User: Which sequence fits this backbone?
DNA sequence: TCGTAATAATGAATCGTTTCAAAAGAAGGA
DNA sequence: TCCTTCTTTTGAAACGATTCATTATTACGA
């Protein structure tokens, strides 16, 4: 029992295959009664268009590939949702790939998307993939970097000024009078992490009596944050930083868990804490978390718009959009 | 500048197209030196297999479609990640569709996946789609229900016993001495919500002096929880329930925000609170949240396994796997 | 040297659409 | 009736990879 093809429909309706195709793609070209006859044959036979054949003939699919660092991170899930919606209004579908900070999986998704001849790729890269992306564009696939910037302006990109974000967060701690600052870093291979650190460095540099310590976390998750927290507490109270800036909210939440629950430190009295991303859960944390807000949905939507722009008008120069981050003050630094 | 095809590679290497195809699919059938020559032509020309052509010929793609209710919900993102991993080991890729509780988007993704001739569909349905799914299977696409059960055993499924989960949560509240129980429901069109409520009803029925009140939330999000919380507080303290069970953790976190921050109620003293899903953030809430744990990753992995099972051996009967939920007690009910 | 068997390479046919030049049909005017 | 114009329908060609029956090549023993 083979699926019905356009030829079966044509036979059933007593017309030529070209007519069936026209009914599907240019209904106005077909006389109303013929059209009706074909449509009822389609539903009689349960005909479903074969996208592979369509794509083969058209030379391109109607989908856009999106590769994110971590779909479990609310920042990215919100971004993806907005991208999907924006693409849908442009008549395209988004297929989502989750690299999970794994370069191999990232590369695997790039392969897959290229074989599927997606119209374009939105990617928030793990590894240095500029070579691969360049090859992709050379073969006609449009690329937009998301939450990342092209060093050489070779690609369109949508990002947030993470240096400024790091600066905002750290200056906030310093203005509260904190001087022993710690930055909890995720993998420094990530540009986001490096930029946020750079911003923190700049801010600390503006206060001569302040110090900055950098602590590495294995990944940017709640669990990793907890691990760093446990490590920190082992030092004893005197050795603790009094202001901590985490590379993202997940780390901050984990740290908070460790400090307040396992060890009975007070936030913000003993340690003031700032996260990054302002995910929904930041506001409902044990101590509501001060954070840096990034417009996740806006980023996703804008990225699709840049891509569509490139698709519509053939030769457009790459554009980079940079959004400004925003400090959201809550209990973890304000002491109510 | 057209992308290189298998024919271009054949010309460049001075062999027939069939030989190139063999190099790609059955390398052993080709003499080593020929193979090398072809491979170097492939990299010279930057040849990338055209998946559409491959699929057209093969009659099926190598992808599996996954439609989830809400990718922003950590339960589903964790489920998806596990499904992707499991599929990758089986040589398949997962494409993710997020219905966002929207029947139209769900239907749209079903269309898309069917046109793409995915090997199978994993779906956590919003609307009643059994008719559509039946049609899908009739045309040869395998279907596995996720976090949902087929009423009539027509499909394989992986789920958690939500009635039991609702019972566990509610009995816990009752055993703490609470008697005015409220259930914060999400959309009752969802089987999950109905089942959890049913479990709550059963538990309340076992305590003759207990009452159950059902409050509806527009959606299962933090925001909706906050709205219900505000509504609840307007009644005044005497009218409040003393035990609240929420249809999921997001609702519970929103409720918690509203009760503790805007209105100064104490959890668990004034109101004991239980959520559902045990997402990562439950443990790091203002008051760590008691919840019902569902093995999200295991569900995703098992769903893929059931699907692969159906794909390998043609005529297998549908199987249903039901996992048991687990009560995780934290501060929101235990009073430290 | 010849014959046989094993190994390697070939290339036409196929999958299901879309496209488009050409043919057929309809309508109207002279 | 014939010609023109406009609308509708036709069906072969093309997209690019895979398959498989056929042909070519090689190796080896007699």
Assistant:
């Amino acid at each position: 029992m083979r699926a019905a093809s356009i030829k079966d429909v044509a036979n059933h309706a007593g017309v030529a295959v070209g007519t069936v195709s026209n009914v599907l793609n240019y209904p106005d070209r077909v006389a109303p009664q013929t059209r009706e006859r074909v449509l009822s044959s389609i539903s009689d036979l349960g005909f479903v268009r074969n996208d592979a054949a369509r794509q083969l003939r058209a030379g391109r699919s109607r989908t856009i590939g999106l590769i994110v660092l971590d779909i479990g991170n609310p920042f990215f899930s919100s971004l993806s949702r907005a991208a999907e919606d924006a693409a849908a209004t442009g008549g395209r579908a988004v297929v989502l790939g989750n690299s999970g900070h794994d370069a191999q999986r990232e590369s695997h998704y790039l392969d897959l998307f290229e074989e599927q001849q997606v119209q374009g790729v939105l990617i928030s890269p793990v590894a240095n993939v500029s070579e691969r992306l360049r090859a992709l564009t050379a073969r006609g696939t449009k690329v937009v970097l998301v939450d990342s910037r092209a060093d050489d302006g070779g690609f369109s990109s949508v990002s947030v000024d993470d240096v400024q974000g790091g600066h905002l967060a750290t200056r906030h701690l310093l203005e509260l009078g904190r001087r022993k600052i710690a930055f909890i870093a995720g993998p420094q291979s990530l540009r986001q992490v490096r930029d946020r650190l750079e911003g923190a460095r700049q801010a600390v540099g503006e206060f001569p009596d302040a110090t900055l310590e950098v602590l590495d976390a294995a990944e940017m998750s709640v669990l990793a944050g907890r691990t760093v927290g446990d490590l920190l507490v082992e030092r004893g109270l005197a050795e603790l930083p009094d202001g901590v800036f985490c590379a993202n909210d997940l780390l901050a939440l984990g740290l908070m868990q460790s400090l307040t629950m396992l060890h009975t430190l007070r936030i913000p009295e003993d340690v003031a804490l700032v996260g990054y991303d302002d995910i929904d859960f930041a506001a409902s944390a044990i101590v509501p978390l001060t954070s840096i807000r990034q417009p996740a949905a806006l980023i996703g939507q804008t990225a699709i718009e840049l891509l569509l722009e490139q698709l519509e008008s053939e030769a457009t120069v790459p554009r980079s959009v940079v959004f400004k981050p925003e400090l959201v003050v809550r209990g973890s630094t304000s002491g109510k």
Observations:
- Chain A touches chain B through 53 residues (CB under 8 Å).
- DSSP finds 13 helices and twelve strands in chain A.
- Residues 15-19, 22, 29-31, 34, 53, 55-59 of chain A lie near DNA strand D (CB under 10 Å from a C1').
- Chain A has three domains: 6-49, 58-147+296-325, 162-293.
